[in-house]
Amino acid sequence: MGNVDEDDFEVLRQKRKMELQKQAQQMADWRQLGHGVYSEVNDTKDFFNVCKKSARVVAHFYRGVTPRCQIVDAHFEKLAQSHLETRFIKVNVEKNPFLVERLQIVLMPTMTLIKDGKTEHSILGFDEFGGTDDFATEDVAYVLAQYGVLNFSEDRSEHIAGRMKGAGVNAIRMEHAARSGGYKLDDSDDDFEIYD
Fold it and tell me: Of 84, 103, 189, 190, whose CB is crowded by the most CB atoms within 10 A?
């Protein structure tokens, strides 16, 4: 620090100022694309437009009469506000049969994780959150981060694993992901192309 003069500090200040301006612009761009709000997408064309414009999308496929879908809604409302890097949307399966068939949605709720226009993974039900209805929003954030669709650094693997005893097939995947530092799917799993 003894060799640092006033000019060096000015260079550091300017560099930091440019970084902050770049971050502010990125956040403004995300907000303009609908990030920061958990919103419903009403048709197939809108769904593809969202996936084309946003690099990371979490889509909740729901039915209004399914109580567990309301649990997902509550968590995604919170996450959408605090994680601008990801676009959170919900899609009514009864109004979008093409997407349901194309993405092979068979269980409610299904949360499809989309990166750069391709489905990365689908979370079926609550197995990956511990197999119970009373998981924390942080548990959801941790699971989404394991698939690279959200930034979250807290390790919740032991917390989730404690509730996973006897959970389904997805629990095995998450235990593997927690141990290996992530779970990478083959590129051929549930891919879809975005057409103009």
Answer: 103
* pLDDT tens for each residue of 36-81: 999 999 999 999 999 999 999 999 999 999 999 999 999 999 999 9
Please tell me what DSSP assigns to residue 127. G
User: What is the C-alpha to C-alpha distance for residues 170 and 173, in angstroms, rounded to an integer?
Assistant: 5
Residue listed under structure tokens 């235990």: 175
Is 186 within a domain? no
Q: What is the pLDDT of residues 87-107, one digit of tens each?
A: 999 999 999 999 999 999 999
Main-chain dihedrals φ then ψ at residue 61, nearest 5 degrees: -90, 120
Dist CA 69 CA 30 (whole Å): 25
Residue 192 lies in a domain: no
Token pair listed for 40:
């419903």
Query: What letter does residue 183 receive in the DSSP assignment?
Result: -
Q: Do 58 and 75 share a structural domain? A: yes
Whether 111 and 156 map to the same domain: the answer is yes
For 94, other C-beta atoms within 10 Å of its C-beta total 10
